[in-house]
């Protein structure tokens, strides 16, 4: 097992390098130069040239890439000019918020998505199946930002069950209850789409498995239908559900952008949008690379989980 | 094409989606012709008029602009951008996928590595990075959304192309001297287009959502022009005071995306042949029972007694009579063989007893199966479940597929016991070990923690037998348990079953198509053809003097060792399809002795005691046929 994890980690290195190349290439396409963006359009050409030299921007692109990469490897993601603090510090601080939000949503959508899919398949063509299928259709069709806004309107403004926005109360203790109070609405809003996608897939994976011979064997030996569904069929269906959980983790992680905006949640997504609007490119670069790298690593976790679940996978 | 559209129209939800989408698209197309207020002219005096106000059906926004007008113009823009992004992504992605799939080798490798890299990004993050580089704006948002979706298309289309590129007609085109470009355009592309359409129909909804999302973040369409996303974004600051400004564009996005999803699902279902046949239906916990007519009573002929069993498969409007009235009985310590070609209904008969026929499409339409006098066919599920494996256990063919692939065999054995008896884990484990030893699995201790894929076919079959024995059942129904095994292993498994029968007094129903196996194991034999028993008797009687022409011919098909010179016989023709059974004898069409009278009416299973045959002109001796 240890060797397998190590091998997966090593195989992630080219992917991570590829990500840095892509991000760098996209940023290198930018018309105009960052020095002008930093100094404003009234800057003198001399000052622009000097800043370019200071920032190392007069070097050829490939040199700049390796300098940037080397700096990142030593933990130096550069300095955000709009916030005037190291990019890494800002990203780490914001990523914490995103992780709490996206992590909670991911747990929610995994549990409810799989459960909905299993119930749907187990009652195929029954009323539960129809109700779940319809809910899933709504869930995957509604924009999460619109859903978030409507949830604020109903549950925060009208019913006053939850706070309108933010991660912490302005006054009062920053304890776990305050966090849950603030987290509930955004986490649900973010989870809905992924729940729908997972439920759909889980349903069809279950239907596929339920027709197989080993299910008949389980029934023939007298396993209760509950056990047939949850113990025999779901276990086998998880083999095809887990990879989709990995993909959905990516959607939840990046879909957090909208929810962070709607709920004023201090996360990396909101930081990125602000950075794009102020053209703080180092912050964008650093943020994107960091989140993408986390996602790649998370996918390794998914693969390892997969191999633990399916003994037929050679590790 | 027409057939496809008709199929699509039959799917009611897809129809609803199609109609909804057509309405929205139509509305968007005629928007410039409608008498609407100009969408971008501000009138601060009329800010936030509520819906149904004079001159503003849906009210006005924070700058006093007519919401209905902005909604329709915004819808137009959102649809245009969404469709454009889908077309760009599909075209580029398909081009990349076809090139990678068609040329293969290094080209493929380099391209697919790149695609994998792009797919390693969380989706929206990549779009954000692209917009960051190009700057906010609707056109740039379009590029970003399209670019992000290219890898998805490339990967799908590549897979299909690889499959097509090695087909004969492509080789033929190559040999006839066509250029690669022409092969791609005339041979590959037409085959790939349906896949592109499916992929588009499933992703276009996402693309409209994503463009709306970027606009919502202020990175898409810029003021004063607004698509649906930026309308929502602008309305957000007035969410609490004037929710209608948010609800209007939000609901429109929901309607568009939902109708596209409905239609997309419909298209996928219409093009996926597996769904058409209803093959994806899940089998229920027990076979459906819908008995017409009276239930025949038990006669006490055996511990397990099947009387007049009829099982049918209803697929669409066709009815397959898989089992058409079968009577069987087996006593403790006895082994009954059921023999017949594949499709003769022998497995369905066996599975019907415990309600294990997949349903849908299977239905038991008549007859009864008595266990110790109790009818199992009509039994409620709870009772049936309690008896499955406990009183009547099954051994199936192909242990590769019949054991759960992800549980250790020991755990599967333990489960078989614990669903029926309250045994502790350690006691069950000890019993499982003893069972594995009973079926003569070497190193039983270690084998307990093996997964099925770690065992050989013979070992797995022994596990299957051990599992059937786990609760000391009285009856075992073995459905071709040795068919997948090689001859030496087969012999071992047979002698094992024979021992168990003698030592435990088991009643065994043994289903096979192999007379050699019957001769070794069975006391009595029933021969099945087209869902009915055509002959029955003791094994010796049947083997020495088959009376039904079918039995005789079936036996003539068995090659005998040391008689290599004999011409290997086969039965001409095929068994009849059981949804169109002829009247009279089902074998008549293949029978050399058939007379017109054979096809006229139902022929009874006739004879003395347990020696019976369903034939008007029974054989008189084996030699006659063999020569």
General description of the model:
The complex is a heterodimer of chains A (315) and B (627). The longest helix of chain A has 38 residues. Chain A starts with a helix and ends in a 6-residue tail after the last helix. Chain A is mainly alpha-helical. The model of chain A has no long low-confidence stretch (mean pLDDT 87). Chain A has a two-stranded antiparallel ribbon with strand order 1-2. In chain A, 77% of the residues lie in helices and 1% in strands. With 627 residues, chain B is of the alpha/beta class. The C terminus of chain B is likely disordered. In chain B, the strands form two sheets. In chain B, strands 7-8-9-4-10-11-13-12 form an eight-stranded mixed sheet, sandwiched between helices. In chain B, strands 1, 2, 3, 5 and 6 form a five-stranded mixed sheet that branches. In chain B, α18 runs parallel beside α19. Among the domains of chain B are: 251 residues, MetI-like fold; 90 residues, no CATH class. In chain B, α19 links the parallel β8 and β9.
Q: What's the SSE blueprint?
A:
The complex is a heterodimer of chains A (about 325) and B (about 625).
Chain A: H1 2-28, H2 34-39, H3 45-54, H4 61-73, E1 79-80, E2 85-86, H5 87-122, H6 127-141, H7 144-158, H8 176-210, H9 213-220, H10 225-262, H11 268-277, H12 281-309
Helix pairs in contact in A: 1-12, 5-6, 5-8, 5-10, 5-12, 6-8, 7-8, 7-10, 8-10, 9-10, 10-11, 10-12, 11-12
Chain B: H1 2-10, H2 12-30, H3 67-103, H4 105-119, H5 123-134, H6 138-165, H7 168-175, H8 180-216, H9 228-235, H10 244-271, H11 273-276, E1 288-289, E2 304-315, E3 318-330, E4 335-339, H12 346-353, E5 362-371, E6 374-375, H13 381-387, E7 392-395, H14 399-402, H15 409-418, H16 425-438, H17 444-447, H18 457-469, E8 475-479, H19 487-504, E9 507-512, H20 515-521, E10 524-529, E11 532-538, H21 539-544, H22 549-556, E12 606-608, E13 611-613, H23 622-626
Parallel strand pairs in B: 1-5, 4-9, 4-10, 7-8, 8-9
Antiparallel strand pairs in B: 2-3, 2-5, 5-6, 10-11, 11-13, 12-13
Helix pairs in contact in B: 2-3, 2-10, 3-4, 3-6, 3-8, 3-10, 4-6, 5-6, 6-8, 7-8, 8-9, 8-10, 9-10, 15-16, 15-18, 16-18, 18-19
């Amino acid at each position: 097992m240890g060797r397998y994890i190590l091998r997966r980690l090593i195989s992630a290195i080219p992917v991570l390098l590829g990500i840095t190349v892509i991000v760098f290439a996209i940023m290198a396409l930018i018309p105009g130069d960052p020095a002008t963006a930093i100094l404003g359009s009234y800057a003198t050409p001399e000052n622009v040239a000097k800043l370019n030299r200071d920032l190392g921007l007069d070097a050829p692109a490939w040199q700049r890439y390796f300098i940037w990469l080397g700096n990142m490897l030593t933990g130096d993601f550069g300095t955000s000019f709009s916030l005037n603090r190291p990019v890494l510090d800002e990203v780490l601080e914001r990523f914490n918020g995103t992780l709490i939000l996206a992590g909670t949503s991911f747990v929610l959508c995994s549990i409810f998505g799989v459960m909905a899919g299993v119930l749907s398949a187990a009652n195929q063509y029954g009323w539960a199946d129809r109700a779940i299928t319809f809910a899933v259709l709504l869930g995957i069709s509604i924009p999460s930002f619109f859903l978030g806004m409507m949830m604020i309107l109903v549950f925060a403004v009208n019913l006053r069950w939850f706070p309108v926005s933010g991660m912490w109360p302005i006054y009062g203790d920053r304890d776990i209850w305050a966090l849950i109070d603030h987290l509930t609405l955004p986490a649900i809003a973010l989870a809905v789409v992924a729940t729908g996608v997972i439920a759909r897939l889980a349903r069809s994976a279950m239907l596929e498995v339920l027709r197989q011979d080993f299910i008949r064997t389980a029934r023939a030996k007298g396993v209760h239908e509950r056990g047939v569904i949850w113990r025999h069929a779901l276990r086998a269906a998880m083999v095809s559900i887990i990879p989709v959980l990995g993909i959905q983790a990516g959607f939840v992680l990046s879909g957090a952008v909208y929810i962070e905006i709607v709920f004023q949640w201090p996360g990396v997504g909101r930081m990125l949008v602000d950075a794009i609007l102020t053209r703080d490119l180092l912050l964008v670069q650093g943020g994107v690379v960091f989140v993408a790298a986390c996602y790649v690593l998370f996918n390794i976790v998914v693969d390892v989980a997969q191999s633990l679940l399916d003994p037929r996978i050679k590790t | 094409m027409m057939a496809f559209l008709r199929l699509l129209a039959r799917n009611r939800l897809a129809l609803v989606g199609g109609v909804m989408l057509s309405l929205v698209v139509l509305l968007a197309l005629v928007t410039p012709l409608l008498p609407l207020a100009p969408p971008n002219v501000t009138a601060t005096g009329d800010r936030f008029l509520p819906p149904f106000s004079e001159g503003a059906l849906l009210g006005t926004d924070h700058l006093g602009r007519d919401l209905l007008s902005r909604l329709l113009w915004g819808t137009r823009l959102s649809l245009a951008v969404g469709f454009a992004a889908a077309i760009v992504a599909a075209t580029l992605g398909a081009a990349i996928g076809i090139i990678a799939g068609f040329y293969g080798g290094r080209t493929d490798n380099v391209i697919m590595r790149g695609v994998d890299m792009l797919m390693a990004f969380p989706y929206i993050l990549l779009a954000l990075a692209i917009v960051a580089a190009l700057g906010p704006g609707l056109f740039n948002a379009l590029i970003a959304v399209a670019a992000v979706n290219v890898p998805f298309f490339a990967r799908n289309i590549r897979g299909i192309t690889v499959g097509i590129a090695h087909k004969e007609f492509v080789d033929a085109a190559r040999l006839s001297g066509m250029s690669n470009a022409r092969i791609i355009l005339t041979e590959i592309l037409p085959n790939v287009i349906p896949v592109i359409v499916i992929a588009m129909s499933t992703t276009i909804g996402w693309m409209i959502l994503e463009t709306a999302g970027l606009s919502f973040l202020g990175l898409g369409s810029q003021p004063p022009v607004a698509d649906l996303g930026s309308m929502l974004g602008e309305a957000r600051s007035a969410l609490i005071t004037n929710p209608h400004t948010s609800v209007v564009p939000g609901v429109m996005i929901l309607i568009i995306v939902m109708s596209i999803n409905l239609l997309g699902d419909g298209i996928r279902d219409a093009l996926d042949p597996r769904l058409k046949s209803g093959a994806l239906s899940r089998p229920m916990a027990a076979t459906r029972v819908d008995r017409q007519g009276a239930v025949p009573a038990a006669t006490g002929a055996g511990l397990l007694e099947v009387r007049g069993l009829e099982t049918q498969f209803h697929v669409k409007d066709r009815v397959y009579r898989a089992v058409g009235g079968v009577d069987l009985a087996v006593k403790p310590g006895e082994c009954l063989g059921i023999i017949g070609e594949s499709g003769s209904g022998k497995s369905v008969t066996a599975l019907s007893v415990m309600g294990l026929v997949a349903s849908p499409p299977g239905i038991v339409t008549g007859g009864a199966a008595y266990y110790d006098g109790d009818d199992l066919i009509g039994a409620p599920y709870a009772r049936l479940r309690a008896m499955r494996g406990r009183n009547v256990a099954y051994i199936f063919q192909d242990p590769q597929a019949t054991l759960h692939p992800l549980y250790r065999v020991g755990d599967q054995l333990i489960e078989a016991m614990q669903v029926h008896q309250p045994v502790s884990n350690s006691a069950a484990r000890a019993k499982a070990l003893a069972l594995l030893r009973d079926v003569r699995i070497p190193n039983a201790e270690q084998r307990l923690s093996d997964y099925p894929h770690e065992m050989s076919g013979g070992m797995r079959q022994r596990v299957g037998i051990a599992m059937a024995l786990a609760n000391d059942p009285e009856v075992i129904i073995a459905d071709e348990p040795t068919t997948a095994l090689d001859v030496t292993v087969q012999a071992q498994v047979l002698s094992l079953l024979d021992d168990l029968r003698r030592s435990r007094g088991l009643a065994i129903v043994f289903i096979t198509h192999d007379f050699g196996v019957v001769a070794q194991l069975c006391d009595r034999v029933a021969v099945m053809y087209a869902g009915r028993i055509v002959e029955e008797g003791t094994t010796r009687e049947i083997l020495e003097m088959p009376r039904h022409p079918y039995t005789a011919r079936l036996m003539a098909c068995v090659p005998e060792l040391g008689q290599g010179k004999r011409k290997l016989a086969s039965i001409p023709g095929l068994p009849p399809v059981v949804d169109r059974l002829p009247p009279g004898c089902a074998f008549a069409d293949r029978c050399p002795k058939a007379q017109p009278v054979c096809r006229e009416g139902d022929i009874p299973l006739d004879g003395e005691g347990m020696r019976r045959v369903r034939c008007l002109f029974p054989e008189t001796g084996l030699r006659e046929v063999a020569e």
